[in-house]
Amino acid sequence: MQAPFVPSADVLSLLHLHPRDDVAVALRPIAAGEALSAGGRSVVAAEPVPHGHKIALTSIAAGTDVYKFGWPIGRTTMDIAPGAHVHTHNVETRLKGVQGYAYDPAEHQPLPSADAEFLGYRRADGRVGTRNEIWILPTVGCVGRTAERIAGIAAARHGGAVDGIHAFPHPHGCSQLGSDLESTRAVLAALACHPNAGGVLLVGLGCESNQLDDLVAAIPEALRSRVRTLRAQGVEDEVEHGLALIDELVSQASCAERHPAPLGELVLGLKCGGSDGFSGLTANPLVGRMADLVVGSGGSAILTEIPEIFGAEHLLMARARGTDVFDRVVALVNDFKCYFLESGQPVSENPSPGNLAGGITTLEEKSLGAVQKAGQSPVGDVLRYGERVRLRGLTLLEAPGNDAVSSTALAAAGATLILFTTGRGTPLGFPAPTVKIASNSELATRKPRWIDFDAGEVLTSGPDTAAAALLSRILALASGEPTASERNDEREIAIWKRGVTL
């Protein structure tokens, strides 16, 4: 389900996406009284319509489904006349609670492939990293600043020997119980296994719930040779002791060199944040093309943000490789809905204020645009939060929509490059190189220090030209060219907290 782009959109005012749709998207601000046409229909704007927002092409009766992308995005709360602005004042969500699903498999289409290569670091276990860095992971928030001090001194001491030395503090690891503690440990252990880390220093305090020995035990034995540990309570000067351990790791990691690797060695994390009315028209479908190309070349792509597929989950379920994967997708979606409902929250408590301002009306509309990041690839596996990618192909990963939490989960799962689409803009960066892809050219022009690629080219140059340009950019960034967030030293993690704090 990808939008039929119109290459000559720069001379158009409206974009009609599917013959079934009774709305079109404004490609520029529309003034009241303007005569317009889209989808073979003529209409006069009854009121101003902001760019990225929807205009009715026909009469839509109250209580009727509104269609965009060829699917319902909500239900009208009043009669809507042709030319009217269609948004939250006259449309509401159709989403409710947990529901049953039937497996109706779609026919899998052949995926494209490419002989393209990037320069990466091949690790002993066969995986290929896009960076060769030293990561410092604190077990607990109490030593977060200690980890940052060690990283700052070590980075100045070893500049150029590796691609970077970074600390990733967080506030968790103590006063946690049960599954909450297990999730914290699982995410940190998974990050310690990442192929972009040539060495890892685990910094513990000593008395925390997330004990250092238990964290090390969660790391596969074959990967522990590149891991060092420090208990701050057990040494006289924890910073000097940590620096000595970093010296060892740098000496070991600095021997690694970049070598050509096929496109299929990439693991793409698929993420959108601060979406607008163009995200589902330009950036997300363009990322979907990249996901299909990498998967078709033998690589991996990971889609997360489970609450942001509500209303479009049936499209992913139809692409499940067999009933077992289908059942696991259903369980993942309904478990997440129960998580909302048990907290007294509706499953449709989305979009955000920024999404609404950008023209997204309901969660269904947001989701139908968001799932396009996954292209047309079959869903081959489902991971729970904190698990690492197991199979090549498209994987669905449990995590919320929150940008920092979901992007951290993608990195922990093994994404070596995160393709992050945005219509509103954000400076955030995460452990894996985070490629910011603007859905509109205005954002790309206004925030060049944040944005790595302008997907607005889809509407001016066409999707094929934009896809070729994005692939070239991805290969350069995977080969070591810094992303905007790396240049800005934007690096962080966020761990999903769901349980009790003592």
Explain this structure to me?
- About 30% of the residues lie in helices and about 20% in strands.
- With about 500 residues, the protein is α/β, with parallel strands linked by helices.
- Strand 6 (about 65-70) and strand 7 (about 70-75) form a beta hairpin.
- The two termini are about 45 Å apart.
- It has a 7-stranded parallel beta sheet with strand order 19-20-18-17-21-22-23, sandwiched between helices.
- It is built from 14 helices and 23 strands.
- The chain is globular, with a radius of gyration of 23 Å.
- Helix 5 crosses helix 13.
- The chain folds into 3 domains: about 10-90, Archaeosine Trna-guanine Transglycosylase, Chain: A, domain 4 (Roll); about 135-255, 3-Layer(aba) Sandwich (Rossmann fold), CATH 3.40.50; about 260-485.
Salient structural properties:
14 helices, alpha/beta, Archaeosine Trna-guanine Transglycosylase, Chain: A, domain 4, 502 residues, disordered N terminus, 29% helix, seven-stranded parallel β-sheet, four-stranded antiparallel β-sheet, Rossmann fold
Give me the side-by-side strand order of the main sheet: 19-20-18-17-21-22-23
Reported for the largest beta sheet, the result is:
7 strands, parallel
Figure out the total of helices. Answer: 14
Regarding quaternary structure, what we see is: single chain
> Quick one: overall form?
globular
Tell me the total number of β-strands: 23
**Class by alpha and beta content:** alpha/beta
Radius of gyration: 23 Å
Strand composition percent: 15-25%
The mean pLDDT is 94
